[in-house]
Write a structure and sequence with these properties.
By secondary structure, the chain is mostly helical. Helices cover 68% and strands 0% of the residues. The longest helix has 58 residues.
């Protein structure tokens, strides 16, 4: 979009917002740290609600270190007046933790003496610090010209055609600081912030639609829309010509399945038959073993050989007796 067209469109937005909202009053007594923590509460909520929560945090806890070690659940309970207490508590706790890890203290007043660019870079490095919180601290604590923009305001600017989708993804509204004078920065920023909070709180409500259509009557198609429930389209009934091949395929599939079942049953029965045959064959083996044992036991009986050996042993004795008789017979004549 050309810069002239963008500036005129921004002025239209400011003109309409002035009709419905009143600017908040700036807090000048807070330090850099307090502005940073207050911005964590303010991002998506109204100024009065954020002030109430910030005062409760300051009074109910001993110091900011005690807030740092408190659970997100407990902080969210205390921050219920905000539109998004859980996300606000998460931002606050992450910023305090990042400050403690970086400086081991909560003193950010030296930033006032630094160059604004250097301080902005330092603020952006803290975990939990969004572009909104950095811009708010730059405007209210460091004296710079930067208008804080929350997500609701980005969506509003996108709907009325001030920015494109790529610029919305970068969380920036180019030309906003040029279209607004520095001495009116806080006033205009407060008014635009309330428009963003309204869209964040009720994106499909009649109030925000009324304001956006008043800014740009042609933005109806770009307004936030409710997510529609996805209804699956009904599948058309298949024709008879297509249905017949499908039936044939189903018949083939069922035939294959039946064949597979029968083969499976046969395969199950075969092992059973084999097992039965094996059981029947076992007794036959036992008989063979007995026969073998009987055949082995036969060689143990050797009576004939033993008798033969005994007879041979007795034969020399008989011969000896005969010899002795002969010797006696010879001695008789003497």
């Amino acid at each position: 979009m050309a810069s002239n067209n963008r500036a005129t469109q921004i002025n239209k937005v400011i003109k309409v917002v002035k009709k419905y909202y009143q600017p908040a009053e700036p807090e000048q007594d807070r330090g850099v740290l307090e502005h940073l923590l207050f911005a964590c509460c303010l991002e998506n909520s109204l100024h009065n609600d954020a002030t109430q929560v910030f005062e409760s945090l300051s009074q109910d806890y001993f110091d900011w270190n005690e807030v740092r070690v408190t659970s997100i659940r407990e902080l969210a309970e205390l921050m219920k007046p905000l539109n998004d207490p859980k996300s606000s508590a998460t931002r606050l706790k992450r910023v305090l933790q990042s400050l403690f890890e970086s400086h081991y203290s909560y003193d950010l007043e030296p930033m006032r003496k630094q160059n604004i660019g250097q301080s902005v870079k330092q603020l952006a490095k803290y975990k939990g610090a969004s572009s909104f919180t950095v811009a708010y601290v730059t405007q209210n604590a460091l004296g710079g010209h930067s208008i804080p923009v929350n997500k609701g305001l980005l969506q509003s600017m996108l709907s009325v055609g001030v920015i494109s989708e790529s610029e919305a993804n970068k969380n920036t509204v180019p030309g906003l600081e040029r279209a607004v004078a520095k001495n009116r920065g806080f006033e205009v920023g407060s008014l635009l912030h309330q428009l963003g909070v309204e869209l964040h709180r009720s994106p499909y409500g009649p109030t925000i639609r009324k304001y956006l259509l008043e800014i740009d009557p042609k933005c109806k198609d770009r307004l936030p829309k409710r997510p529609s429930k996805k209804v699956e389209p009904k599948k058309p009934a298949p024709s008879k010509a297509k249905a017949e091949p499908k039936k044939a395929e189903k018949a083939k599939a069922t035939g294959k399945a039946a064949a597979a079942k029968t083969t499976g049953k046969a395969a199950v029965k075969k092992p059973a038959k084999k097992a039965a045959a094996g059981k029947a064959a076992k007794p036959a083996k036992k008989k063979v073993v007995k026969k073998a044992a009987a055949s082995k036991s036969k060689p143990k009986k050797k009576p004939a050989k033993k008798k033969v050996v005994k007879k041979t042993a007795k034969s020399p004795a008989k011969t000896k007796k005969k010899k002795t008789k002969k010797k006696i017979s010879k001695r008789k004549p003497r």
